[in-house]
């Protein structure tokens, strides 16, 4: 794929990048090299190669899947604020915190 200076300037415009003629020429050289490398990589036959999940044969140590923390919901809800208006009742209903309505 051959790139032109107009292609580079259009891409730069879309990216909102200011590019002068010299920078456009340098960019053409770099992008042409990158696209050439991609073409070389695509030309390689990889049908008989099995995909790798990792570049090294590393095995991940796994820890046992056990519960390490208990449910502290009741303890946290003891810190809930009061309903207000002189009430001594906490702002909790069905295990959820009550908050003031902010959208009318």
Describe the protein.
The protein is of the alpha+beta class. The protein has a domain of about 40 residues: Histone, subunit A (Orthogonal Bundle), CATH 1.10.20. About 35% of the residues lie in helices and about 10% in strands. A two-stranded antiparallel ribbon has the order 1-2. A two-stranded antiparallel ribbon has the order 3-4. Strand 3 and strand 4 form a beta hairpin. It is elongated. The mean pLDDT is about 90.
Distance, first to last CA: 58 Å
CATH first level of the domain at 5-43: Mainly Alpha
| Main sheet record | 2 strands, antiparallel
Mean pLDDT: 88
Task: Provide a brief overview of the structure.
This protein has helices at 5-14, 21-43, 73-77; strands at 82-84, 87-90, 92-93, 96-97.
List keywords for this structure.
alpha+beta, Histone, subunit A, 37% helix
Describe the SSE topology.
Layout: H1 5-14, H2 21-43, H3 73-77, E1 82-84, E2 87-90, E3 92-93, E4 96-97
């Amino acid at each position: 794929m051959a790139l032109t200076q107009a292609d580079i300037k259009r891409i730069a415009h879309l990216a909102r990048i200011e590019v002068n003629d010299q920078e456009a020429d340098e960019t053409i050289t770099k992008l042409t090299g990158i696209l050439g490398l991609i073409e070389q990589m695509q030309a390689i036959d990889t049908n008989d190669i099995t995909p790798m999940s990792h570049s090294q044969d590393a095995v991940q140590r796994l820890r046992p899947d056990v519960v390490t923390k208990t449910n502290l919901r009741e303890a946290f809800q003891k810190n809930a604020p009061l309903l207000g208006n002189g009430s001594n009742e906490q702002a909790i209903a069905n295990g959820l915190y009550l908050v003031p309505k902010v959208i009318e």
